[in-house]
Write a structure and sequence with these properties.
Elements: E1 2-4, H1 7-12, E2 22-24, E3 26-29, E4 48-53, H2 55-58, E5 62-66, E6 74-76, E7 97-104, H3 106-111, E8 116-117, H4 119-129, E9 137-141, H5 151-155, E10 162-163, H6 165-175, E11 179-182, H7 196-201, E12 207-210, E13 223-229, E14 237-246
């Protein structure tokens, strides 16, 4: 077991500090590598790379890249749905370290690509794992992460699973969750073009993570996430590095 504890450093410096410890046995990357051929939401700008400097001629290697704020593994911000919502750069560092649980609907999604998480699914999960704690981010493993290398299958003409709006409402109102995440291109089911789950969660600056991967490697409970978006001023979202610290 590896323990990260820097409180002793602050004590020797005579600085006030309230220690917070992440105990973990393993760290797992939940972000897909970014390349020009990744799955894209219809109408989103392409991912582009261009060499600006080369080792042979300039002595160093440098590229520029361009992509949409909601491409690859990414975090959404309230201003993507609300005119007076805050941008991605306003998320505090502390708000991006969160506890997470994982609900597995892989079998249901394999049988029905339009399947959405129900309140009954949540209650059944809680009967085994315990009630979801306030502030927790609920991650939904659908199995869609395994389709990432086939963009057509991943988007599937916008037939992919997600959170049912009423279930999102239950999680927000009755469990006071801190956000949601999923291994598809949207926390809303692909056929919900009202983006009801996004809108509900982002009515406040909470967490919405999309295009995650490796969710099948996480336990149902006990994971801590570290989320690192780019600090894009007034960004509607940002590609993000997401690390999972396993107990």
């Amino acid at each position: 077991m590896i323990s990260e504890n820097i409180s002793s450093l602050f004590l020797t410096m005579n600085l006030p500090f309230s220690p917070k410890i992440i105990n973990y046995s393993q760290v797992i990357h939940l972000s897909h590598p970014i390349a020009s051929n990744i799955p894209q939401w219809p109408g989103d700008p392409p991912v582009e790379f261009q060499a600006i400097a080369n080792l042979s001629t300039d002595g160093y290697y440098l590229r520029r890249f361009a992509m949409g704020e909601h491409s690859a593994t990414h975090l959404n911000a309230p201003n993507s749905f609300y005119p007076d919502g805050v941008g991605i750069e306003t998320y505090t560092a502390e708000s991006l370290i969160v506890k997470a649980v994982v609900i597995n609907i892989g079998e249901r999604a394999a049988a029905n690509p339009d399947y959405t998480l129900t309140c009954a699914d949540v209650l059944a999960w809680e009967a085994e794992q315990g009630e979801i704690s306030p502030g927790t981010v609920v991650l939904l493993y659908t199995g869609w992460q395994h389709k990432w290398s086939d963009p057509e299958a991943f988007i599937n003409q916008q037939h992919f699973p997600g959170f049912a709006p009423e279930t999102t409402g239950f999680l927000l109102d009755r469990r006071q969750i801190g956000g949601v995440g999923i291994d598809t291109h949207g926390v809303d089911g692909g056929q919900d073009l009202t983006f009801a789950t996004n809108r509900q969660v982002l009515a406040e600056p909470r967490i919405v993570l999309e295009n995650l991967t490796n969710l099948d490697q996480l336990p149902p409970i006990g994971t801590t996430l570290a989320i690192a978006p780019l600090q894009l001023v007034q960004g509607s979202g940002s590609p993000a590095t997401v690390l999972a610290f396993l107990p």
